[in-house]
Design a protein that fits this description.
heterodimer; A: 641 residues; 5-stranded parallel sheet; elongated; B: 390 residues; alpha/beta; Rossmann fold; 2 domains; 13 helices
């Protein structure tokens, strides 16, 4: 790989990374989360926002990577990955890789094929994909066997199962070299025509009535000196979103309808899913299975496993560089506040508390709680301050309860302890951050949360922190570890840049930014209500099914603006700026979809990082926010009026 | 031997002398292609051209105007108004050139009728083919590159040359049946620096006819030589293209030197230090210097370098030559000529040329600065009577 001053900036999916480096940096924890069904004979579609790890996952199953894993199987730091692969029969300890993984990208010109009559266009697309699958399979076979050129496959024998009898276009009687020649000549004839601007003859280009290459790949048998080579197959097609809509639909439909005996993995950005992103459920069928990489990490034990996965990635990246001592990345991120960090904030917080509870001193109901608070005031520590903030929240909650009580005795400290819980404590923490600037966004766990289950985002954040550590090295600081304040400052800058970049990267970027700002403002307003009713805070908004159905209504006056909102929402979800989660029905509300803010954006808006609190909004609110900004719902505006 | 061993190139006031000689005492059926954009330099070129024709009291026999418009760009209201005004003014000036005038707009980037999504490369190809179809019995073709995005004028230049010069090896190839193909450029470096191109598209665009060598599977193992032609403020676009360039590729950055600003090349080196010289460990000895204001010098430099690399790398089985045009117009046109000449014919060649680019989606410029521009016109005569050595 070319030298990069920051090892967290390298993208493993890119060609620039060698197989050796790829194996070094690859974290096998993703394989633990892959369902076993993904290795069965069917079509499996992996989707994620950009940087989610799709291409990296596919690349791990290509022959050069598998050979690199096998060659380094004795190294302790590679053994986990090797065991994961060996456990699935993909690599054999003695014989090496057993799987022929065929990897192609749809970014290689399919969308540039000339549009034309449907069957002609489809025929050319199939013909081109077919010859590339054949070529790539044979090339990968060369890598699998540790050879250099096709010519060295001269002794390889090809035979076919009964599926091979159906092949009409791909020559089954050919030797390896004849097959290569057939595929190369076919592909070049397509591009000779495409590269000719003057006097092009579209009718001279090849055509195919079906994707024969899949049938070929699952029926062909390779043997060398009587020994079967690569008995397992896996066809991987990346960047499906680069295809034209019709091409993508054709590929999915025809692949799903085939009688498959090998798994096919397709990878695409979520933006290709279109409007389906806003609807519910997994779009799966008998032979088509969909997996969202973000959902893999966020469902069940996913969040904890993502943290382990993320740390594994960061540690491997740190090992690659030599500027600062290697080890675990977390060792450079102090994850606790010390007395010195909050020396000025604690007295300030204490003073604020005193001022705010002054009016409650007259009420005997709170006398015990306030007495307990006095003891905390004297402690003058951060933990005590957090307790004070929690107490303040509970005081305000009790004060604002509408139901009158005839209870004359003061509320006991046991009652205080009972009402206090982790959510109130979490609310106290974010309130301290908001009012006193006590650091909140620091530590390895919060870094992993900020990544919002996206590897590229994780690396972007880590890159900023690495620059900070490097700067301390250059300045000859005694301690390289970043303090919570230093971490928060760097992460805030990343969050700010992320927000600023939104208009540049999206078709409706300005509207998207306005909408997200409004959601952020709205969430802030709900989070920092004095009684913290949605502790630890609100980080998302929800549209009920009734509201979502408005996207399909034919109200002429509103159809254009609603379509625009849908497009903006869909792009935000596709790019992981908003995380869509289903919300089930309950006795008091119908089901719907929650749109949580990207966790890094939560840093920009000063919101907590827990995924949980949300508020219902109307479509009209979102339209208003998208067009004019703000962050107040119509209901709130009417209340003020 | 190279195609433009001898060439015709004039700048500034000398351009009028060229036009005087070119249009004197012969029937002229003109096809004038220009951009329908916000850049006021297109008006400057048109006005200068019309002034020359009308000043000598000539009337062209026929004059066909093609305004090449673009969809898919985000422009401010100001720039959109400027676009409309430019189009109207250009058409009005053009009407005075002949008693037989036609005016057509060809827009690049429109959606197909059945709402099939169109890739940027396909949109460019379709637009280029539409312009080519307009070439009929014309004696003169003028392409004003001043207000055209670089992908468009490169596509048009190479496509028109391919139409006019079907056999590059022929000794009178540039005669082109007597059709005079002229490229005009109004340069204003200060204005170029002021116009900001932002938000490079994530979909790379390929100049039509210059893509296969990066797509064809059978040549994907050939060594690759990349010639990024560096210009100010385009590192984002460079990074988009970098995803196509393998780690082991040979990289030859092209810098503008000599330049009217002697420090320009130094500043570009600093700007591109990280993505080219640090990340890719490109040696400084790989840098190519091309004259900023002399397209034929840039053409010779680029063609020479591409031929040398091709000849050296053939021993490795083949060679892929990739040019990314991020520099100013005159150098870019020179590179375009080199790519046209270098492009192999037939399917059996063991090298190929590709021109990928990341077209920006947004342009930002101030109307006042645009209107204050005072460009200098350059004229390149690429084919026709000046090359009649029969």
């Amino acid at each position: 790989m070319g030298y990069l001053s920051n090892p967290f900036l390298e993208r493993m999916s890119e060609q620039a990374t060698s197989d050796h480096e790829f194996v070094r940096l690859f974290s096998p924890k993703i394989m633990e989360r892959l369902p076993d069904a993904a290795f069965e004979s069917a079509v499996h579609v992996f989707s994620s926002s950009p940087g989610g790890g799709k291409t990296t996952l596919l690349r791990a199953f290509t022959p050069p990577a598998l050979r690199a894993f096998w060659n380094s199987r004795r190294l302790p730091e590679r053994s986990e990955a090797y065991q994961a692969l060996a456990g699935r029969g993909i690599i054999n300890d003695d014989d090496g890789p057993q799987l022929l993984g065929v990897f192609l990208s749809c970014a290689s010109g399919y969308a540039d094929l000339p549009p034309g009559a449907t069957n002609v266009e489809a025929g050319l697309f199939r013909a081109l994909l077919d010859c590339r699958v054949v070529l790539r399979s044979l090339r990968n076979l060369v890598s699998l066997l540790g050879l250099n050129t096709y010519a060295q496959l001269g002794d390889l024998e090809l035979s076919y199962s009964e599926f091979g009898n159906d092949l009409k276009t791909i020559p089954t009687s050919a030797s390896v070299s004849e097959l290569v020649q057939w595929a190369e000549q076919r592909e070049r004839s397509v591009y000779a025509e495409l590269d000719s601007i003057v006097g092009r003859h579209d009718e001279a280009m090849p055509s195919a009535v079906r994707f024969e290459s899949v049938l070929w790949l699952q029926s062909v048998r390779f043997s060398l000196n009587g020994k079967t080579i690569a008995p397992k197959r896996l066809l991987m097609i990346d960047d499906l979103h680069k295809l034209r809509r019709k091409q993508r639909a054709l590929l999915l439909e025809e692949f799903s309808e085939m009688r498959l005996t090998i798994p096919i993995w397709l990878a695409e950005r979520r933006i290709a899913l279109g409007d389906q992103l806003l609807s519910q459920g997994v779009r799966s069928g008998r032979d088509l299975h969909s997996y969202s990489l973000e959902e893999i990490w966020s469902s069940g034990k996913g969040p904890y496993q993502f943290c382990a996965f993320a740390q594994n990635i960061l540690d491997r990246r740190l090992d690659v560089q030599k500027v600062i001592p290697s080890g675990t990345f977390s060792q450079y991120l102090r994850d606790e506040l010390r007395i010195d960090d909050t020396r000025s904030e604690v007295p300030l917080g204490v003073a604020k508390f005193r001022a705010e509870v002054e009016r409650m001193k007259e009420n005997s109901r709170y006398s015990e709680w306030l007495a307990h608070a006095e003891s905390l005031l004297a402690a003058n520590t951060l933990e005590a301050l957090r307790e004070l903030y929690a107490t303040r929240v509970l005081l305000v909650r009790d004060e604002s309860r509408k139901q009158l009580t005839l209870e004359l005795n003061p509320l006991s400290t046991e009652e205080l302890a009972e009402r206090d819980n982790s959510q109130v404590q979490a609310a106290a923490e974010i309130f301290m951050h908001d009012e006193l600037n006590v650091p909140y966004y620091y530590g390895i766990d919060r870094l992993c949360t900020l990544a919002t289950s996206n590897v590229e985002e994780l690396l972007g954040l880590a890159a900023a922190l690495y620059d900070g550590i490097q700067a301390k090295q250059v300045l000859r600081k005694a301690e390289l570890q970043l303090s919570p304040q230093e971490q928060e400052k760097l992460l805030r800058e990343v969050a700010k840049r992320k927000r600023q970049f939104i208009p540049r990267n999206h078709t409706e970027g300005t509207r998207a930014q306005r909408l997200l700002d409004s959601i952020g403002n709205y969430c802030r307003a709900r989070t920092f209500l004095p009684n913290a009713p949605y502790a630890p805070g609100v980080t998302g908004v929800r549209l009920s099914f009734t509201e979502l159905d408005k996207f399909n209504e034919r109200d002429e006056a509103l159809v254009a603006i609603r379509a625009l909102l849908k497009r903006v929402l869909f792009e935000c979800v596709a790019e992981n700026l908003l995380v869509a989660r289903p919300s089930g029905a309950s006795t008091s509300r119908e089901a719907g979809t929650i749109f949580y803010l990207n966790r890094t954006l939560c840093v920009h808006y000063g919101l907590p990082l827990q995924m949980g609190g949300w508020q219902d909004v109307d479509m009209e609110d979102l339209i208003e926010w998208m067009e004019r900004g703000g962050g107040r719902t119509k209901r709130q505006q009417l209340e003020i009026g | 031997m190279i195609l433009w061993q001898h060439y015709v190139y004039q700048r500034g006031p000398a351009v009028h002398d060229l036009w005087d000689g070119l249009y004197e005492r012969r029937p002229v059926k003109l096809l004038y292609i220009t951009g329908r954009g916000f850049d006021i330099r297109a008006q400057a070129v048109m006005s200068s051209f019309a002034e020359n024709i009308q000043g000598s009291e000539r009337k062209l026999d026929e004059a066909d105007l093609i305004l090449v418009g673009f969809s898919g760009y985000q422009l401010s209201e100001e720039l959109t108004e400027e676009t409309e005004k430019n189009a109207t003014d250009i058409a009005r000036v053009f009407e005075g050139l002949s008693n037989s005038v036609t005016n057509k707009v060809i827009t690049i980037g429109t959606q197909l009728d059945d709402e099939e999504d169109l890739s940027p490369s396909n949109a460019l190809r379709i637009g280029t083919e539409a312009v080519l179809r307009e070439i009929g019995a014309h004696t003169d073709i003028v392409l004003d590159a001043s207000s055209l995005p670089r992908v468009v004028y490169l596509a048009l230049i190479t496509a028109i040359l391919e139409k006019l010069i079907p056999e590059k090896q022929h000794k009178d190839a540039l005669w082109a049946n007597g059709i005079n193909f002229q490229v005009l450029v109004a340069e204003d470096a200060a204005l170029d620096g002021h116009i900001r191109a932002e938000d490079p598209s994530s979909d790379l665009i390929f100049i039509p006819g210059f893509s296969s060598v990066l797509h064809v599977e059978s040549v994907s193992q050939w060594p690759l030589v990349w010639f990024p032609m560096l210009g100010e403020g385009r590192t984002n676009q460079l990074r988009q293209v970098t995803s196509l360039i393998p780690d082991e590729a040979e990289i030859c950055p092209v810098l503008p030197h000599p330049s009217h600003d002697p420090r320009r090349a130094d500043r570009l080196l600093l700007e591109y230090r990280e993505p080219i010289f640090v990340a890719r460990q490109t040696p400084m000895s790989n840098i190519l210097y091309a004259h900023e204001s002399h397209p034929f010098e840039a053409y010779r430099q680029m063609l020479g370098a591409m031929r040398r690399y091709r000849d050296s790398m053939l021993v490795l089985g083949g060679c892929r030559l990739v040019v990314t045009p991020l520099a100013s117009k005159l150098i870019t046109i020179g590179a375009g000529l080199a790519c046209f000449e270098m492009k192999p014919t037939g399917t059996d060649k063991d090298y190929g040329v590709a021109i990928p680019y990341a077209e920006p989606k947004r342009y930002v410029a101030s109307r006042e600065v645009l209107r204050a521009s005072k460009p200098e016109i350059s004229a390149l005569l690429l084919t026709g009577q000046a090359y009649d050595f029969r």
